[in-house]
């Protein structure tokens, strides 16, 4: 085993705060470090990034503590309801340990702690009050901006969150905290305020964030962006097939990023699986070579996705096997109950409960218009090719000829409803609907909805408060789910798209239109 000093330098972190202090500690003894995770949504495959770093810390001789931050999960806009907190914490304990075992990390060298084991003590509670007397509201809000769920009317609990995370460093008696680079503001908050209580400033190490499959951050609350650790093989295939992986594009490419940050650190190589007629299998021992070949289109997105699918399933198989026992199946169902959907009404009954008609059932995504042509048989229709982050662009027919010039649609980002049943419009099958704002009075004006600047094709669009939930595979025309929801679509006085006064959002902000205040959306 190499010496602690040389090994910690080897750990591939994106950033280190307090490197001089780190090296000073290592000259005297082994480093004590912790990694914490709030027990909210189901852990996904991006969790392999910190797991691989934890393996590196152990190899370097560090004393590592893993914190299951159950109280934090409740404080973060109640992502974990109080009645589910114990169940979700137990689920996290089992699944994180299964992940570590799947990559060969010896569990006996780790210390596992729950937040509520010490965060409800008299001493800790008093320190929370002491900290709240010196921290400004501005600093608390700023510290949690990248981690705590941001809503229009934030709860006080979200302001407490960063302070508790700072105090954890003292109460876990560690030298350093390790986390994603999205934690940086909380880390600098801790460095600023812990000394005001007479506690030492800690070292902070950060790993990069893995972009989700849609190009944004991989998130437990955004279903299409991530692959769950217990997803079936067919679900993994389906999600990878829909993942954003444009030929030659290495920016915001979630598939490439997963190879870079997860598969390469774990295996030190990656094999692209190909048929012999396309050159046969090729083994890469350096990520940079793979990225260069993809950028030059030597490697095809389909081959890349298929290869990731095979490698990922090898990691997930031991976890799936462990959770195949009745006890853990029951725990999984209890910790993450499926939202109840009423059974369809039987013939002749009148009093059956209607099924839930909620915005999360809509598969709405950011799309980029690749091409626009006039419909060959209809003067009022365009036929567009729109990239929504899938292997091939979708063909969409839109009645926008009289409202939006062709050149204004070309290369434009739009908002596309993707799970309508495909239907032919004057002989051309349309595979989606471009959502547009329409004026109330005459003459009628129509403007396509605009996603926030910087969005990527395929990124999920959701309604505030309905971030979770899996969209329907296909909306059944007879159920009229879209029509019932669309009746409450409106444009606000600030030109923001809304459903029942809740904003349409992406990870980068609100969806809007140019000028049609108070308009309808269809």
CATH fold-level name of the largest domain:
Rossmann fold
Q: Please state the overall shape, judged from the principal axes of the Cα atoms.
A: globular
What helical percentage do the residues reach? 25-40%
Kindly report how far apart the N and C termini lie.
Answer: 63 Å
Give me the Rg, rounded.
25 Å
User: pLDDT under 50 segments (min length 5)?
Assistant: 1-12, 216-221, 340-354
Per DSSP E runs of 2 or more residues, the count of β-strands stands at 23
Q: Say which CATH homologous superfamily of the largest domain is assigned.
A: HUPs
GO molecular function, one term: tRNA binding
Domain TRNA-binding: 358-462
Main location: cytoplasm
Pfam families: tRNA-synt_1b, tRNA_bind
Primary descriptors:
single chain, 522 residues, alpha+beta, Rossmann fold, Tyrosyl-Transfer RNA Synthetase, OB fold (Dihydrolipoamide Acetyltransferase, E2P), 3 domains, ten-stranded antiparallel beta sheet, six-stranded mixed beta sheet, 23 strands, disordered N terminus
């Amino acid at each position: 085993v190499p010496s602690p000093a040389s090994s910690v330098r080897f750990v591939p972190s994106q950033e280190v705060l307090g490197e001089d202090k780190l090296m000073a500690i290592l000259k005297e003894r082994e480093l004590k470090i912790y990694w914490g995770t709030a027990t909210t949504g189901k852990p996904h495959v991006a969790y392999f990034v910190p797991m691989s770093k934890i393996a590196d810390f152990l190899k370097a001789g560090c004393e590592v503590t893993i914190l299951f931050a159950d109280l934090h999960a409740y404080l973060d806009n109640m992502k974990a309801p109080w009645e589910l907190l114990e169940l979700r914490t137990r689920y996290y304990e089992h699944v994180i340990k299964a992940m570590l075992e799947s990559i060969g990390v010896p569990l006996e060298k780790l210390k596992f702690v729950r937040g509520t084991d010490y965060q409800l003590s008299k001493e800790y509670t008093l320190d929370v009050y002491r900290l709240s007397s010196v921290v400004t509201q501005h600093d608390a809000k700023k510290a949690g901006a990248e981690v705590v769920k941001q809503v229009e009317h934030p709860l006080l609990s979200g302001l407490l969150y960063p302070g508790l995370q700072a105090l954890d460093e003292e109460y876990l008696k560690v030298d350093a905290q390790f986390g994603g680079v999205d934690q940086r503001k909380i880390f600098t908050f801790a460095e600023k305020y812990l000394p005001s209580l007479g506690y030492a400033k800690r070292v902070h190490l950060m790993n990069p964030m893995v972009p989700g499959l849609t190009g944004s951050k991989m998130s437990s609350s955004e279903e299409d962006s991530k692959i769950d650790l217990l997803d079936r093989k067919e679900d993994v295939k389906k999600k990878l097939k829909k993942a954003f992986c444009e030929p030659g594009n290495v920016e915001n490419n979630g598939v490439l990023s997963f190879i870079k940050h997860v598969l390469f650190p774990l295996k030190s190589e990656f094999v692209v699986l190909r048929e012999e007629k396309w050159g046969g299998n090729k083994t890469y021992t350096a990520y940079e070579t793979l990225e260069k070949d993809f950028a030059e289109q030597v490697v095809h997105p389909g081959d890349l996705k298929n290869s990731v699918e095979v490698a990922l399933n090898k990691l997930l198989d031991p976890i799936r096997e462990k959770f195949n026992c009745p006890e853990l199946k029951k725990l999984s169902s209890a910790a993450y109950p499926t939202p109840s959907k009423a059974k369809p009404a039987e013939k002749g009954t009148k009093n059956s409960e209607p099924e839930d008609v909620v915005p999360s059932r809509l598969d709405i995504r950011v799309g980029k218009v690749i091409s626009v042509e006039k419909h060959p048989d209809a003067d009022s229709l365009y036929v567009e090719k729109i990239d929504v982050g899938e292997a091939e662009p979708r063909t969409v027919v839109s009645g926008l000829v009289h409202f939006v010039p062709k050149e204004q649609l070309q290369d434009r980002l739009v908002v596309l409803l993707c799970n309508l049943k495909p239907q032919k419009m004057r002989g051309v099958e349309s595979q989606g609907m471009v959502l547009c704002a329409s004026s109330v009075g005459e003459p009628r004006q129509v403007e396509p909805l605009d996603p926030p600047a910087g969005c990527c094709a395929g990124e999920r669009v959701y309604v505030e408060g309905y971030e979770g939930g899996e969209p329907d595979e296909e909306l059944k025309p007879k159920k009229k789910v879209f029509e019932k929801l669309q009746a409450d679509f409106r444009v606000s006085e600030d030109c923001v798209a809304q459903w029942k006064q809740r904003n349409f959002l992406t990870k980068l902000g609100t969806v809007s239109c140019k000028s049609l205040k108070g308009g309808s959306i269809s």
